[in-house]
Specification:
There is one protein chain. The chain is an alpha/beta fold. Helix content is 42%, strand content 14%. A 7-stranded parallel β-sheet has the order 3-2-1-4-5-6-7, with helices on both faces. Helix 1 links the parallel strand 1 and strand 2. The longest helix has 29 residues. The chain starts with 9 loop residues before the first strand and ends in an 8-residue tail after the last strand.
Length: 263
């Protein structure tokens, strides 16, 4: 068995109530970490061993710092931050149908929350001389087959760029910063109510399953033939959070079933 040496470590996960965030929370706590799990609604986190659910609106200016503060208050330190919060709204009208306000919303949800959480976390990590940040980006940070995710892609690209910058600045202080870029994952963001498949289905007059298949074939298809699961993404994140990858920093890992053919 490969021990990831995460037992007793203190981790904060944002957007922990469902999808990738919930899978990461379970994976880290399963390795023996204390997880302070932030979510707008924390009901799905109740009763999980080793998990402190925190109901917080991370889109507010001080929400991310409040969450980090809670972890330090409870445990006296912070070892791992997983910036998982993210959201996408399909822009079916393309560039001209995507306003400044739409771009600002995408930057807020996919960049500024992670930026603020990182700022608060790094303050604590620098004092300790160690720590790990893993940012959940997206293949849309560099792969845009159409304009439907134009604002989301720009925000995720900013997040990947920030990842690399922070890795360089804080590497000498014992802190690692990496990103994970999933392709389509079997979560509500893709398959749930108001998700990608349903939104495209409504815009094109087909059912959600047909829309999902059309989207996937239109962007080149998966080598594996299926969506990635939240648990598979969580496994990669947990590995990067561990000191088994102690000299890995400033890297963006793609997990997409072979969707991207060129990296």
């Amino acid at each position: 068995m490969m021990d990831l040496n995460l037992a007793g470590k203190v981790a904060v996960v944002t957007g922990a109530g469902k999808g990738i965030g919930l899978a990461v929370t379970k994976a880290l706590s399963g390795e023996g970490a204390h997880v302070v799990a932030g979510s707008l609604t924390a009901g799905s986190l109740d009763g999980l061993k080793g998990v402190t659910p925190v109901a917080v609106d991370l889109s507010t200016a001080d929400g991310p710092a409040q969450l980090i503060g809670r972890a330090i208050e409870e445990h006296g330190r912070l070892d791992v931050l997983v910036n998982n919060v993210g959201a996408v709204r399909m822009r079916v009208e393309g560039f001209f149908g995507t306003s400044d306000e739409d771009f600002a919303w995408a930057m807020q949800m996919n960049f500024f929350i992670a930026l603020r959480a990182s700022r608060a976390a790094l303050t604590a990590m620098v004092d300790k001389g160690s720590g790990v940040i893993v940012n959940v980006a997206s293949v849309n940070a560099f792969f845009q087959p159409d304009a439907a995710t134009i604002d989301y892609g720009a925000a995720k690209a900013a997040l990947v760029n920030l990842t690399k910058t922070l890795a360089q600045e804080f590497g000498p202080r014992g802190i690692r910063v990496n990103a994970v870029s999933p392709g389509p994952v079997s979560t509500d963001l893709w398959l749930g109510e108001h998700g990608v498949a349903e939104t495209v289905a409504k815009a094109t007059g087909v059912d959600a399953d047909t829309a999902r298949k059309t989207i996937i074939s239109g962007i080149g298809g998966f080598a594996t033939g299926r969506f990635t699961t939240p648990e598979e993404v969580a496994t990669l994140i947990t590995f990067l959070a561990s000191d088994r990858t102690a000299n890995v920093t400033g890297v963006n890992y793609v997990i997409d079933g072979g969707l991207i053919k060129t990296t």
